[in-house]
């Protein structure tokens, strides 16, 4: 049996390597979402994970590589919350998106900080990752929403713009709410959003005749 496959304390080398990688990712998520990415060092990550520095470089070449992995997981978790519903009415699609986003941000403040603040302006690479995930969520959300509304179909370009508008508005609402220490209370804010969305949809349908 090769060293790579030889078990140690009941686990193979690959299993131990995978476990260490998960420890580093968990530590990265925690520190990026509390002290912040720019204030975090490889040494701090390893101390948080209880590992020697050499184990960091076993899995990641740079701290930015770890941020990419952490961010991918954060967005996957967020996506499960904001696109979880299967509503077939426009207002409910929009409400499900923003309600899911608010709920996720309040329940996951560490992950929310990574997504809303810590990935911004790090590098061109991270910026493009941020944009690509926003586009993906926006495309799916706009596709769901446009399927519930009467009128002509959107062109691909219009669909992209619509998705950008929806995701951008949702982000701004959640960022403001987090900065305001989750005030007003979630249900009160949702009532205001419901009223606003209802007005927007009614105005849009009236414009279509």
UniProtKB/TrEMBL annotation:
Which named protein is this? TetR/AcrR family transcriptional regulator
> Which residues fall under the DNA-binding region feature?
41-60
**Residue stretches making up the HTH tetR-type domain:** 18-78
Which SUPFAM superfamilies did the record assign? Homeodomain-like (SSF46689)
One Pfam family cited in the UniProt record for this chain:
TetR_N
Q: Does the keyword Transmembrane helix apply?
A: no
Alphabetic keyword roster:
DNA-binding
Alphabetical list of PANTHER family matching this protein: HTH-TYPE TRANSCRIPTIONAL REGULATOR PKSA, HTH-TYPE TRANSCRIPTIONAL REGULATOR RUTR
Note the InterPro entries from the entry: Homeodomain-like_sf, HTH-type_TetR-like_transc_reg, HTH_TetR
